[in-house]
Specification:
alpha/beta; Spore Coat Polysaccharide Biosynthesis Protein SpsA, Chain A; 2 domains; nine-stranded mixed β-sheet; 12 helices; 39% helix; 19% strand; globular
């Protein structure tokens, strides 16, 4: 094994004890062995550190921050410790399948490829009809795919592998002002410059649960999404008006979804009535008229 690891795996942890053992175990079971793990403990107050210490392996590197910072500040800090030619990410509540790293590395034989992603399985105990489902049955787009991503964004952070030399000129990889959609912002901007490749079958499992930051702070996330949308519209980040239209429906649904989660009254109902006639309108009506403990098992936010 070479001195320099081929892959640096970034795992940021803040009170992740519930699923942490399974996440770490899925890294240790990878068929590709030349990697390092940057385990960044963002001031956890639970048993996360004790769980981490059960794993005895020289490839595991532990870091602890004495002041809790935002998730993407933490990710940026962890990335500065990475030594690998490639970078991967795994959150404490997700799982990789054993050949994940091996399959993705093969895609980097094309020197122009900057990012490899793949399909994943999403599991949710709350969604009655879709407790376990594949993120998409269609083939994932490959190449220079910005417009494809604007139409349908299916890039899970747990599946991302990056060529690290393409990050060298970046002071920070993730923009921390968008702390609830940092990977979306990064991936879309990265796609403007670099070629993507994809593994066309599942390489991991993504868990949806009530304790996720995205769900606990839904109102803030929605507000950030609107700010982000306004910024890319103003700067014309993704080109022409046609491309921007692809994201308008996403922003509109996010904002309506959040309003319904906060309150239900006649004014909100009238807003939904004025909503364009599409599948999202049906989702919003279901959310409005059914109790939350039922609606959250039927309608997914994304």
């Amino acid at each position: 094994m070479s001195k320099r690891p081929e892959i640096s795996i970034i795992m940021n942890c803040h009170n992740g004890e519930k699923f942490l053992y399974q996440a770490l175990d899925s890294i240790l079971k990878q068929s590709f062995k030349n990697w390092e793990l940057i385990f960044w403990n963002n001031r956890s107050a639970d048993k996360s550190e004790n769980i981490y210490k059960k794993f005895k392996d020289k490839r595991l590197r532990y870091f602890y921050t004495h002041k809790k910072v935002s998730l993407y500040e933490s990710r940026n800090a962890a990335l500065k410790k990475a030594r690998g030619k490639f970078i991967s990410f795994l959150d404490v509540d997700d799982i990789w399948f054993p050949d994940k790293l091996k399959l993705q590395l093969k895609k980097f034989k094309d020197k122009d490829v900057g990012l490899v992603y793949g399909k994943y399985i999403k599991i949710s105990k709350n969604n009655f009809f879709r407790k376990r489902n594949l993120i998409t049955k269609k083939n994932l787009p490959e190449g220079y795919i910005t417009q494809d991503l604007l139409k349908s964004y299916n890039v899970g952070l747990l599946t991302i592998m990056l060529r690290s030399k393409f990050l060298r000129n970046k002071k920070t990889v993730f923009r921390t002002k968008y702390n609830y959609l940092g990977d979306l912002d990064f991936v879309l901007n990265f796609s403007l410059k670099y070629k993507f490749a994809a593994v066309q079958h599942p390489i991991g499992i993504y868990r949806q649960h009530d304790n996720q930051m995205q769900k606990k702070f839904r109102k803030i996330k929605s507000h950030q999404f609107t700010q982000w949308f306004n910024e890319i519209a103003r700067k014309k980040t993704f080109g022409n008006h046609k491309n921007l239209k692809l994201f308008e429906e996403w922003e509109r649904f996010q904002s309506h979804f959040t309003i319904i989660k906060q309150k239900r009254n006649l004014n909100i109902f009238l807003k939904i009535i004025k909503y364009p006639n599409n599948l999202n309108k049906i989702k919003l009506l279901i959310l409005f008229f059914t109790p939350e403990f039922i609606s959250k098992r039927i309608v997914s936010e994304t």
